[in-house]
């Protein structure tokens, strides 16, 4: 049986046409033809898109097969046609913890506050790709020593990695030879310095660029270490990034000098953020986990909040979908698809449909949707009774814990969103259950349709076998309603309210307020130690997960989203299922007010959202962008700066 990227069964003849169209696009990519060449050949429209030709375009399928168009159809739109693979042949890879090194073990020159612009005689280029100094008070504050308390070194290089036993080893880009990269385990009050070496080759194997900028997603990070998309550095260079691991507000004039414990982060992730190539470089493997602990969320279930102990019962899971060449089995990327790429192979921690064996006790799973373009709505499914809801507890929304655990039947995540969940496997002892994505999404541009399929009819992403030994469980029972953190206030009058419209331009690229991203253009400046309100608008039939760098926000108003279905109703589902915020909402969910802090806000078709945030501690340049990374690269991103004084532009 053959399937399209939306999981629908298709005939062999249709599948062959889908695959031939995809292959034709790959041949154009390999041939290095320019857009001008394609226009002369009649293969490019005046809007800059490939013509809707059955044997070529990724958009041709909906009209060809009589199911509407790619904005609202359910055809899969010819995204890819990968070879068949047998599920459950690999155990779930769990990345090891990255280990620090001593200063004497660090390769190259010693770290410096200013960028090391000395020329490396071996490469003929500057040692360091950083162009801005580590900003004050790094090095002059006892909480921010330089070099940092802990030092790490990582190499970004090519490695052959197994994604499935029935596919060849994939030549991908990695951190220290693995993808996802090794997990950084950090603690509040303990700064770290990571030296990233770019050892990537010029031969990209068809896509990607050997120029990188590593972003710590959701990190409260100085601009020069944030992974700003234009702070990329070349092969043969290194980049020293300093992560303070301090509570937000620790330098602020609106709170105490130690920051706000209620803004403590837990689950972060790092990924490449190179301007124009984020999607390709992340797709090619440059992702990893970064976990933050503190005196409450300790990683030890006998102390603090008593959440399941890391690493035995606290497991990061990075979800992704990918396309593979049907004839060679190689990982492929469609650079002509600027709507959003949907894969037909579903991966967890870099493996296609793996298996996890667990003991009958509580576990903490850290779920991350790494994209590139697919939204998720994840359920636990027992195939012996697939339509029976299997509720579990959600304890975080993005990088931080909720005030209390919330029992939910599913968790919905846009690209880049995270959710920590607690699942008690005692009730499943001796059984096998699955993590299943049931969300309908026909294409990357329009996003989900707003409906979910029945249990067992979606994409089974992870098989969980509860066959481990009985072990002691000292973790807190989430049904006892423990308290974690309270929500900081964003009351008061914002210094300025700004509006942002997320749209598509005439040339087929993605815009914010009608403009494309430009590294050198500061669209607006925020005054440090002030609060702002930003109003996001999405007036069309596409979806955008909007990510703000450096500071988290709170959603104060938002239109209902499209996720959830009345057929999935339950006593708790009404709290989040069809509402904008989906989880952590007030009992009166119709207000759309989010009761957690976020770094990514989900703009579903024809929706609006208002967010408020304070900008503290660090100055410099940051970005807002769509985290459907195809949209980001084409070029739905805005540069803003934080400085001692700011402007009052209402429509930057």
Reported for the largest beta sheet, the result is: 8 strands, mixed
Overall pLDDT metric: 86
Q: Name the shape in a single word.
A: globular
Question: What's the CATH architecture name of the largest domain?
Answer: Sandwich
Regions with little confidence, pLDDT below 50 for 5+ residues: 59-78, 559-593
The CATH class of the largest domain, by name, is Mainly Beta
Structural class per helix/strand content?
A: mainly beta
Strand content: 25-35%
User: From the alpha-carbon coordinates, what is the Rg to the nearest angstrom?
Assistant: 23 Å
Please give the domain count: 4
Beta-strand segment tally: 36
CA distance, first residue to last residue = 51 Å
Q: What is the fold named in CATH at topology level of the largest domain?
A: Immunoglobulin-like
Determine the fraction of residues in helical runs and give it as a percent range.
under 10%
Please identify which CATH superfamily of the largest domain we are dealing with.
Answer: Cupredoxins -  blue copper proteins
H/I helix tally: 5
Would you write up a description of this structure?
With 652 residues, the chain is mostly beta strands. The protein folds into four domains: 2-64, no CATH class; 119-293, Immunoglobulin-like (Sandwich), CATH 2.60.40; 336-480, Cupredoxins -  blue copper proteins (Immunoglobulin-like, Sandwich); 496-643, Sandwich (Immunoglobulin-like). Helix content is 6%, strand content 31%. The strands form eight sheets. Strands 13, 14, 15, 16, 18, 20, 21 and 23 form an eight-stranded mixed beta sheet that branches. The protein has a six-stranded mixed beta sheet with strand order 27-26-29-34-31-32, with no helix packed on it. A hairpin with a 5-residue loop joins strand 1 and strand 2 (9-10). The N and C termini lie far apart (51 Å).
């Amino acid at each position: 049986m053959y399937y399209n990227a939306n999981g629908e069964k298709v005939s062999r003849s249709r599948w062959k046409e889908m695959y031939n169209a995809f292959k034709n696009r790959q041949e154009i990519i390999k041939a290095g033809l320019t857009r001008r060449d394609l226009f002369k050949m009649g293969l490019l429209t005046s809007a800059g898109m490939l013509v809707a030709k059955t044997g070529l375009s990724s958009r041709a399928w909906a009209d060809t097969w009589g199911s509407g168009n790619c904005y609202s159809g359910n055809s899969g739109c010819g995204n890819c046609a990968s070879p068949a693979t047998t599920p459950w042949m690999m155990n779930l890879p769990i990345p090891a913890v990255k280990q620090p090194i001593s200063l004497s073990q660090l390769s190259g020159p010693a770290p410096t506050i200013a960028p090391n612009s000395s020329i490396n005689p071996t490469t003929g280029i500057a040692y360091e790709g950083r162009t801005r100094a580590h900003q004050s008070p790094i090095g002059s504050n006892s909480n921010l020593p330089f070099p940092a308390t802990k030092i790490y070194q990582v190499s970004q290089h090519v490695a052959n990695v197994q994604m499935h036993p029935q596919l060849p080893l994939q030549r991908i880009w990695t951190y220290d030879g693995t993808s996802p990269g090794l997990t950084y385990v950090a603690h509040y009050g303990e700064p770290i310095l990571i030296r990233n070496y770019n050892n990537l080759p010029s031969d990209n194997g068809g896509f990607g660029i050997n120029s990188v900028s590593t972003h710590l997603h959701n990190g409260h990070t100085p601009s020069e270490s944030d992974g700003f998309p234009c702070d990329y550095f070349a092969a043969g260079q290194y980049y020293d990034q300093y992560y303070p691991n301090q509570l937000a507000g620790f330098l602020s004039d609106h709170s105490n000098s130690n920051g706000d414990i209620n803004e403590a982060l837990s689950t972060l992730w790092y990924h490449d953020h190179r301007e124009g190539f984020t999607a390709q470089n992340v797709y090619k493997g440059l992702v990893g986990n970064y976990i933050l602990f503190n005196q409450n969320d300790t990683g030890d279930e006998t102390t603090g909040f008593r959440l399941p102990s890391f690493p035995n019962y606290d497991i990061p899971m990075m979800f992704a979908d990918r396309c593979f060449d049907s004839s060679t089995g190689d990982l492929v990327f469609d650079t002509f698809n600027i709507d959003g790429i949907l894969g037909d192979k579903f991966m967890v921690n870099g493996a296609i449909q793996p298996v996890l064996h667990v003991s009958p006790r509580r576990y903490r799973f850290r779920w991350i949707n790494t994209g590139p373009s697919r939204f998720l709505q994840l359920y636990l499914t027992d195939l012996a009774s697939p339509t029976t809801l299997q509720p579990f507890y959600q304890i975080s929304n993005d990088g931080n814990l909720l005030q209390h655990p919330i029992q939910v039947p599913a968790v919905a995540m846009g690209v880049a969103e995270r959710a920590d969940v607690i699942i008690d496997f005692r009730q499943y002892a001796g059984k096998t259950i699955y993590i299943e994505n049931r969300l309908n999404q026909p294409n990357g541009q329009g996003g989900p349709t707003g409906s979910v399929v029945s249990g067992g009819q979606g994409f089974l992403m992870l098989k969980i076998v509860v066959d481990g030994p009985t072990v002691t469980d000292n973790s807190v029972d989430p049904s006892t309603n423990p308290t974690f953190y309270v929500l900081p206030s964003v009351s008061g009058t914002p210094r300025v309210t700004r509006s942002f419209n997320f749209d598509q331009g005439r040339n087929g690229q993605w815009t914010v307020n009608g403009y494309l991203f430009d590294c050198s253009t500061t669209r607006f400046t925020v005054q440090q130690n002030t609060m702002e309100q930003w109003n996001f608008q999405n007036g069309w039939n596409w979806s955008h997960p909007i990510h703000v760098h450096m500071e988290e926000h709170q959603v104060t108003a938002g239109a209902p989203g499209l996720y959830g279905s009345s057929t999935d109703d339950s006593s708790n589902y009404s709290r989040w299922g069809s509402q904008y915020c989906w989880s952590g909402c007030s009992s009166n969910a119709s207000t759309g007010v989010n009761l957690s802090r976020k770094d990514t806000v989900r703009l579903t078709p024809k929706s609006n959202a208002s967010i408020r945030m304070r900008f503290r501690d660090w100055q410099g340049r940051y970005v807002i962008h769509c985290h459907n990374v195809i949209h980001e690269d084409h070029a739905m991103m805005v540069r803003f700066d934080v400085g001692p004084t700011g402007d009052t532009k209402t429509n930057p």
